[in-house]
Amino acid sequence: MGPAFLLNENSSLRIVKSKISSVKSEINQFKKALLIAQDKTLDLKQKMIDFLSKEEIKIYDAHVEILKDPELEGKTIDFIKSNSCNADYAVHEVTAEYTEILNEIGDPYISARADDIVMLSRMLILILQKKVENKITLNTPSIIVADSITTNQLSSIDTNLVLGIITSHGGPTDHVAILSKALGIPSLVGLAKSISKIKAGSLLII
Question: Are 166 and 145 in contact (CB under 8 A)?
């Protein structure tokens, strides 16, 4: 039981296709972004390693493997070359194609992996655009209410202040659901439009 903390949806990224002066330089920036994203993911893993089992901590290893995927890297580089365009646009277009294919399969587990790709794509684009994600700051123990929340967001906040999580999207196979369960945080996922009735500060019981 606790007050509702309404998590605002992540601000939309402005991704515009633009011509570049050096394809080689753009590819190098993309490769650097991949390494930075891998380091950020490993930092999150290290932060959570004392709280999760060996199996559960593999969530972060799976994210690193996506960032190291040679096919994903190769297709993005090919896109930059063939379009002579900016890396952030290439990342957006290539990962969007991947997630569309995965979501069309109609399997909840596969769709959850598509969500991971969306999260990692956003991380890469923010790095390339030299921006940072807004942090979630809880001042008092609260129940987080959101359309969705990523494993990166959950890993970056003080989980001692998280009394529960309620989302409109997601399912039991989502990495967030697995992570919250491992941390002993009660969660209700996939409530659709029902969460729109919840007001900030409302006393909730999960």
Answer: yes
